[in-house]
Structure to design on (93 residues):
């Protein structure tokens, strides 16, 4: 279902497997204004990585423009996530 990101799956997959869990909030919600909060929530839930759509001009993107962050939005989000990751004892690679 679009606009639903199952963060419980992050926790469950960590319990069930040794593999890293990567979350894609861009495709989960389909709306760029939702992506930052969902990405932050995914990190808080224990996600090992994020897959984010970024485009220099989302309105002119051939596909997925509505869910794409601008480079400036991406930089702002990653600055927050770096602090969040540190809070949870993780580092960004």
């Amino acid at each position: 279902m679009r606009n639903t990101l199952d963060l419980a799956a992050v926790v469950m997959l960590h319990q069930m497997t040794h593999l890293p869990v990567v979350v894609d909030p861009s495709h989960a919600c389909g709306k760029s204004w939702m992506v930052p909060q969902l990405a932050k929530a995914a990190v808080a839930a224990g996600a090992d990585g994020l897959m984010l759509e970024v485009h220099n001009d989302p309105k002119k993107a051939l596909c997925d423009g509505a869910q794409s962050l601008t480079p400036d939005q991406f930089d702002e989000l990653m600055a927050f996530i770096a602090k969040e990751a540190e809070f949870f004892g993780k580092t960004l690679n």
